[in-house]
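Render Transposase in 3D.
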Amino acid sequence: MFVRKKPNKSGKISVQVIDKVGGSYKVAKTIGSSSDPAEVEELFSLGEEWIRNYKGIIDIPFNSEEQVAESVLESVENITVSGTELLLSKIFNDIGFNVIKDDIFKWLVYSRICFPASKLKTCEYLQTYHGLDFHVQDLYRYMDKLYNNYKEIVQLISFGHTKKILGGSINIVFYDCTTLYFEVDQEDDLRKTGFSKEGKHQNPQIVLGLLVGLDGYPLAYEIFEGNKFEGHTMIPVIETFRKKYNLPAPIVVADSGLLSKSNIKELLDNGYEFILGARLKSSGTNQKSKVLALELENGESVSVDWEENLRMVVSYSEKRAKKDKINREKGLKKLEKQLATGKLNKTHINNRGYNKYLKMEGEIKIALDMEKFEQDGQWDGLKGYITNTKLDKEQVIENYNNLWKIEKAFRITKNDIKVRPVFHYKQRRIEAHISIAFVAYKVYKELERQLNEKEANLSPQKAIEIAKGIYTVEIQLKSTGKKLRKTLFLNEGQQKLAKMFDF
């Protein structure tokens, strides 16, 4: 708010108080007009006085700066962290999640991004840093409400926003799944022990399937029983997503863990084009011979006919070959150590990981199968992609390589948003917990997109750290009892962030 002198056509000078409302400047008060310079200055002073009165600012004749500072400090009623709310609410509203008119929902999402913890710790955080008095039972009751009312709404909002920023259509989707473990011992209908991608084989878990668009923007998710084979999760998620939004079949991209004859058949039967990571070493004898006969040089790729309606794109990379060799040698050394300490027995002779390099010698002796180890070296650096698309081989490889963005999505949800371990035991609260994490990831990704769009040279985590240092101070005037609030931007980083996101 400031005082402005504006010349009129009549030759007089109008004195006005100007305020910024909704991003534009508007006249808050016209003080008067005059052609006399002395009167104009008097009107200008009246305008400044009007602003002080409007804001509740009173001039007090203190004898020293120390008295002024002491009086202000004694008037402080509250200090809260406000930067994270100012930043994240901007993103939250831009996506459209503000149609859900529940403060608890908003704060659960913000907390999952800024201070991911149990619901009890979340209550303590909100009280300490934001002055919000939520009881843990309030949050639990809200989790039940969220499960009943909002799961479909948040996915619909996320889909609509993702579709908009991707240009209005969803032509390609990326699917992957992961496991989330629980700090409990007992299984139930949903939480079951199974193959854990986190090495928590003894903990009950759930399987989370995630579908994203280009650049990792989230589209949909589903939760499955913890002992569900990941290869059986893909088709249900994609089909549900496609039918829910009445979409034409997109190109489906998934890694080799989702490759199976049944998945390929279902994808073909339902009219999908797809790019799947191939298991070249598990192919038929003739197919393996065809691949090895290619003798590709570094950076080369080739497309070959594979099966009916399918082709295989094969690429070779020296960098990948070095990595594959190092991994094989590490696996072999680990087996050598286990053999030396007597930790291996007949049950370890299987095709899981590097156990394939074990064999029996005689009735009881376990030995390393060096012939198999050397044979596997032929495949170092080779990567296969099975597809039925009409894309050229470079486009197939480029699209498949975008799978790292869904892997990044899981890293963000597990490491930054800390979606696991999950402490809830009721299924509806587990579902609600995943919904909150899904929304938090969507907000995180949109913050990342806007930072890139603004060429901010900041990661989402760095922007959030800067926002955590922005405080709002509330003071109460002793003379009138009126409360004033002031948000403090104490350094250049905070000021730039506030200007960038207009808060």
